[in-house]
Design a protein that fits this description.
By secondary structure, the protein is α/β, with parallel strands linked by helices. It has two domains: 169 residues, NAD(P)-binding Rossmann-like Domain (Rossmann fold, 3-Layer(aba) Sandwich), CATH 3.40.50; 108 residues, 6-phosphogluconate dehydrogenase C-terminal like domain (6-phosphogluconate dehydrogenase C-terminal fold, Orthogonal Bundle), CATH 1.10.3660. The protein contains twelve helices and eight strands. An eight-stranded mixed sheet has the order 3-2-1-4-5-6-7-8, sandwiched between helices. The radius of gyration is 21 Å and the shape is globular.
């Protein structure tokens, strides 16, 4: 099987590693508009060869679109125009409804399967790709009823082989949940980082007090803006509602702190502690990932 990966960053590169380790493909073709990324991916052996989009898609049995979500929406119709009738195309973006709406308008919609692997780090680029990124992680397939059976089967087989657990969900439902459990946490991290950086202008030694709690909380603020800005834009409706709810909770904490209402603050924190039970039940509490190179 020939696999084409469009976008050779953390996700695309780590998929290439898994594909090679599991012997899924005879050939991996890489495509990236960033020439430096493309050369790095070839030089470190993530891909077997590089090609332009037309050739890479035409030759592929399985196409992985691993670019930013705004670029996926632009590229998807062109890719679906060029595939052969037995090829399967997947994307790996963290917003799904907009991509699915565009796919739904194409005559080759059945060849496309919308997916979101819940895996990643704050690092980016092909040199950040690593072994085992997807092991035991969750994979969401959206709107599978609009995809051909063979395409869904091939996609499920691929993700099973690289070690992911698969669930199905509607794209609108996916984006709603992602706003709360993924996108909101990134905004929170970016905001905390901005707040502390403002204080740091006046207090040069503030970071001497920063411990592991601060480091883990702002870790996501190191994520690539050119990736996350389009995600926020694509999911703005759901994210706006999530922010409203989050801001109300911040206001409540502020009010109780100003009143020095220790008992109510304590009660809120006890209630918040229940998140541990939920996350441990779903095996979502893990150690902080080792930082990889950019």
């Amino acid at each position: 099987m020939t696999v084409t990966i469009i976008g050779l960053g953390l996700i695309g590169g780590s998929m290439a590693i898994s594909i090679k380790e599991k012997g899924i493909a005879g050939t991996i073709i890489g495509v990236d508009i960033n020439e430096s990324n493309a050369k790095d991916a070839l030089n470190i052996g993530l891909v077997d060869e590089l090609a332009d989009l037309d050739e890479a898609v035409y030759r592929a049995d399985f196409v992985i679109i691993a670019v930013h979500v705004d670029q996926t929406k632009l590229l998807l119709p062109e890719i679906l125009d060029k595939i052969n009738s037995t090829a399967t195309v997947i994307d790996v973006g963290s917003t799904k409804e907009g991509v699915c709406l565009i796919a739904d308008q194409h005559k080759n919609r059945g060849n496309f399967v919308a997916t979101h692997p819940i895996a990643g780090t704050e690092n980016f680029g092909p040199l950040s790709a690593f072994h085992g990124l997807f092991d035991g992680k969750l994979l969401i397939i959206c709107d599978s009823e609009n995809s051909f059976d063979f395409a869904v089967k091939k996609t499920e087989e691929f993700y099973n082989v690289i070690g992911m657990k698969i669930i199905n969900m509607q794209s609108k439902e996916h984006d709603l949940h992602a706003a709360y459990v993924s996108h909101l946490s990134h905004i929170s991290s970016f905001t905390l980082s901005l707040t502390v950086l403002e204080i740091e202008k006046e207090e040069e030694k503030i970071f001497e007090l920063a411990g592991s709690g601060f480091a883990s909380t702002v870790r996501l603020a190191k994520s690539a803006p050119d990736m996350w800005a389009p995600i926020f834009e694509q999911n703005s409706q759901h994210l706006s509602k999530a922010l409203d709810a989050y801001i109300e909770k911040l206001k409540l904490f502020k009010e109780l702190i100003e009143k020095k209402d220790t008992q109510q603050i304590y009660n809120l924190m006890i209630k918040a502690n229940d998140i541990r039970r939920i996350l441990e039940g779903k095996n979502l509490i893990t150690a902080l990932p080792v930082t990889k190179g950019m």
